[in-house]
Design goal:
single chain, alpha/beta, Rossmann fold, Methionyl-tRNA Fmet Formyltransferase, Chain A, domain 2, 7-stranded mixed sheet, 6-stranded antiparallel sheet, about 25% helix
Length: about 325
Amino acid sequence: MARVVFMGTPEFAVPALKAINARFRIVLVVTQPDRPRGRGQKTAPTAVKEAALAMGLPVLQPKSLRGEEFMDKLISSRPDFLVAAAFGRILPGHVLRVPTVAAVNIHASLLPRYRGAAPIHRAVLNGDKETGITIMHMDEGMDTGDIICRQSIPIGPDDTTGKIHDVLKELGAGLVVAALQALLEGSAPRIKQDHNLATPAPPLAAGEEEIDWAAPADAVHNLVRGMNPWPGAYTYFRGNRLKIWLGRPADTLGYQPGPAGTVIAAGADGIRVATGRGDYLITELQPPGRRAMTAAEYLCGNTVVPGEVLGGRCAHGSA
């Protein structure tokens, strides 16, 4: 049975860990060190560590991939494959050369589109109609290795990053098992990427989740669903930060109510806001220090008056 070293960190990697363990022999799991997480900033294990320990697999959490202890463990594991899934670091060449068959990566985009750390976010934020999984040979570049196989899925107009993430993590699990089997049988293709078609998927930058109401309603919608469930799109209302979790573009009411961000109407269906082109209907939001709720629930205890303006720390009052 083929021996596998698995390297992964977040929840995205867990289905692949389980699927590989069911078909092959995982001899070592490598994940990031425990770090403070959540509101209380308590030190917590990674999702991969939790799953691996529950499965009785050995876990290693090196601070460096160049340390002697890590390399000794890796080499002594005698892996046929090294499989990475959202590990969180680019693997150096001396690590990639250890497996006897291949070092492969599960990447959540249709490479060469969206090389980098946030491929799912970027696909939704940009309003793409499809994305997918690529299983690729790893090299020392940023997602530049040869492709073994790819599979696409559609992105619906209201799909969130969270929904696409959950579909892709299961798709990646099945696809990587098939790829490993094909590599063992010598039937796996090896397709060069067209680097001229490469696009980046950098990590989200601070403040990128703030809604620009001067953008078209479609762009606002892409931002809201692209930032759901993390980190959450936000705007300012009466000087307080207000998270916007769900909404949709809405037909304009046919008149210009004032500057972008102006509330047009507020009622049972949501809070309608003017954008740079068209209207946007907020249907789920979260006030500071409170749970997420529907716009209708929010309006039960908060009066929102047409003419008030969202956006900017000082935005308040009539337009």
